[in-house]
Specification:
Largest sheet: 7 strands, mixed
Keywords: NAD, Oxidoreductase
Helix content: 25-40%
Shape: globular
Bound molecules: nicotinamide-adenine-dinucleotide
Number of domains: 2
Distance between the termini: 81 Å
Family: Belongs to the aldehyde dehydrogenase family.
Protein name: aldehyde dehydrogenase (NAD(+))
Structural class: alpha/beta
CATH superfamily of the largest domain: Aldehyde Dehydrogenase, Chain A, domain 1
Oligomer: single chain
InterPro entries: Ald_DH/histidinol_DH, Ald_DH_C, Ald_DH_CS_GLU, Ald_DH_N, Aldehyde_DH_dom, ALDH7A1-like
GO molecular function: aldehyde dehydrogenase (NAD+) activity
CATH architecture of the largest domain: 3-Layer(aba) Sandwich
CATH class of the largest domain: Alpha Beta
Length: 510
């Protein structure tokens, strides 16, 4: 299928560059590979992946770029990001097309992801004028005690396939206004959208004199490049998004060198539906959260705790809603569920279904492979399985449209079950009872980073801080005060008097 050339760099010797160091395009010294679209399993292009030496050069260049970028006034850095936002608005359709091609999302969700990037640009421009510090009362006469936020350095970003633009945008748009430069290792599944994202920054930086082009670098490669990025001492912060298994490795590597890591890892998200819930709203929210992006969002709904008195009715309605889902090539108008990313994802879904049945589960619907789409894409009927209790398979994140339903009697029991998994990303309750909502959002309620009332588990706005607890990694990105992670806090004491009083009233040699 034709690629949207207007947002991609030029081919070099028949391949897309796997390394972009600002405006320098390089066919990397790694292997040449062909990313495949989940839509039909066919190769989309050739990419010359980065080798370890390319990564080294990119980090060097980003480090140099940071040395001058950090001195540019923050509102001017915001002006660069404003220009990026203008370009993204102009090219929204082409960028969304690439997301659909490489991640298999339906166009509405791809456009939503690009919109999230635009929103991040606007947010970051605002932040660029609000990198506030503090003035603190000093205990000493004629002293000022200040807290300031200073640029951190070149930062490393590792991202997953399922949000191939937005996750980088959360990090990069804020990082840039904070005075950092960015070295990005995207998922090897989504190299073209990564090149297009970089291309927007490259074009915005061209002709913007204060911006050295290497403030944005991309190195396309696999886990080995990600691991080398995490280990590099020139990068004070590694922001890594992906599976818990990946995050554990990155955390150890970065921890060993006492670097800072920002981890956004897997979720195992739950919703509680109480007897007072508005069922029409709950059903819409459940379907979007469980089958949207074919169940491949970190915030996808995986566990549904339903009060016993309404369970049969709710599951019956869900079964009907699932039967009417249109599944297939995401580019076909009306399709709501696109493909799984690849064959292993399908095998993992089948393995989880088998485990659920072996643990006492009854399949209500779904799980079958469909041939509705192009021949080699992986299309599945989203599945619902009723479980007798929260069995071991419910402790795992299966990255597919597979929803487990468990009945409960008391709200406390449902909250306990919801929290009783290793992950802690997103959670929701559907209730019309303010007391139930209060218990869920209170200190003994949901232990997740995201706790919603009468909204599904997925589809967060950028204004809040995004992230989760426990195995989800503890990181917070995007809105609120997440920008602080891309800066270092400096405490500064200024003595404008002519004596030298010591803190705590210490007398030393007087
Ligand atoms: P993945 O863990 O397979 O890969 C993520 C990234 O990590 C890729 O760029 C990959 O090349 C890199 N990587 C893999 N091993 C590495 C290593 N040892 N060192 C350094 N880098 C390494 O994940 P995926 O399949 O691309 O994405 C799905 C997972 O991501 C799910 O678990 C999902 O929940 C999670 N995710 C989390 C969030 C969040 O914000 N919490 C957002 C999106 C996706």
């Amino acid at each position: 299928m034709p690629l949207p050339d207007a947002v991609l760099p030029s081919l070099l010797h028949g391949a897309f560059p796997g390394v972009m160091i600002g405006d320098k395009a390089i066919v990397g010294h790694g292997h040449r590979f062909e990313p495949r679209s989940p839509i039909d399993g066919q190769p989309t292009a050739q990419v010359g992946a980065a080798g370890l030496d390319d990564l080294d050069h990119a980090i060097d260049a980003a480090d140099d770029a940071h040395a001058s970028w950090r001195t540019v006034p923050a509102p001017r850095r915001g002006e660069l990001v404003r220009r990026v936002g203008d370009l993204v608005r102009r090219h929204k359709a082409e960028l969304a097309e690439l997301i659909t091609l490489e991640a298999g999302k339906i166009p509405a969700e791809s456009a939503g992801e690009v919109q999230e990037w635009i929103d991040m640009c606007d947010f970051a421009v605002g932040v660029s004028r609000q990198l506030h510090g503090l003035t603190i009362a000093s205990e000493r006469p004629e002293h000022q005690l200040l807290e300031q936020w200073r640029p951190l350095g070149a930062i490393g970003v590792i991202s997953a396939f399922n949000f191939p633009a937005a996750v980088w945008a959360w990090n990069a748009m804020l990082g840039l206004v904070c005075g950092d430069s960015i070295v990005w290792k995207p998922s090897e599944q989504t190299p073209l959208i990564a090149l297009a994202c970089h291309e927007m920054v490259r074009r915005a930086a061209a002709g913007f004199d204060e911006a050295p082009s290497a403030i944005s670098c991309v190195v396309i490669g696999g886990a080995d490049i990600g691991a080398a990025l995490a280990a590099d001492e020139r990068l004070p912060l590694i922001s890594a998004t992906g599976s818990v298994a990946m995050g554990r490795k990155v955390a150890v590597t970065v921890g060993e060198r006492l670097g800072r890591s920002l981890l956004e890892l897997g979720g195992n998200n739950a919703m509680i539906v109480t007897p007072s819930a508005d069922l029409e709203m709950a059903i819409r929210a459940i379907v979007f959260s469980a089958v949207g992006t074919c169940g491949q969002r970190c915030t996808s709904l995986r566990r549904l705790f339903v009060h016993r008195s309404i369970a049969d009715k709710l599951v019956g309605r869900l079964e009907q809603a699932y039967a009417s889902l249109s599944i297939g090539d995401p580019r076909t108008p009306g399709v709501l569920v696109g493909p799984l990313v690849n064959e292993p994802a399908y095998e993992r879904m089948q393995a989880s279904l088998r485990a659920a049945v072996a643990q006492g589960g009854k399949v209500v619907c779904g799980g079958e492979r469909l041939t509705a789409g192009a021949p080699s894409g992986v299309y599945v009927q989203p599945a619902i399985v009723r479980m007798p209790e929260q069995t071991p398979i419910l402790q795992e994140e299966t990255f597919a449209p597979l929803l487990y339903v468990v009945e409960y009697d008391e709200l406390e029991e449902a909250i306990e079950l919801q929290n009783d998994v290793p992950q802690g990303l997103s959670s929701a309750i559907f209730t019309s009872d303010v007391r139930e909502a209060g218990r869920f959002t209170g200190p003994a309620g949901s232990d997740c980073g995201i706790s919603n009332v009468n909204i599904g588990t997925s589809g967060a706005e950028i204004g809040g801080a995004f992230g989760g607890e426990k195995d989800t990694g503890g990181g917070r990105e995007s809105g609120s005060d997440s920008w602080k992670q891309y800066m270092r806090r400096a405490t500064t004491t200024i003595n404008y008097g002519s004596t030298l009083p010591l803190a705590q009233g210490i007398k030393f040699g007087e």
